[in-house]
Amino acid sequence: MKRILLPVFALAILTACNSKPKTELHSTENFKTAAVYGDSVLDNNVIEIAAVSTAMKGEEKKDLKIRGKVEEVCQKKGCWMVMKLGNGDQMRITFKDYKFFVPKDLAGKEVVVDGYAYLDTTSVKQLQHYAKDGGKSDAEIAAIVSPKMEIAFEAKGVAVMN
Question: 135: left (phi > 0), else alpha (psi -120 to 50), else beta?
């Protein structure tokens, strides 16, 4: 019995020594970043925010890494943010399973988001909720009366650039 357990134990130790530490998942060495929220964001295959509509052409969902400027952040708890697309439309970014949030003062900063873009129809109720969380006035919230078809994004990681 000892002859069998010893090799199994030795193999287990060698395997454990070869595995990469979990802290490496949050490495920011590829970007010069001020902070990373959620999963790490590597610097490969990043497109500019203006190219999202073109990248999405003919697709309902697409994995992307996007670089651009944050226009607005949820002022309640940082649970979403908005970036402007190249055509003047906006893209709302939410965070995978709401496992992380971003700082409420992120507006105006350049970020790289890693996740997937998708086509979404946002209901009037949800648009009004976003407007309220964004600090809009009661009049602005009441003016929202129709759903909106837009490109949305679910991020698994957000890197704030220096």
Answer: left
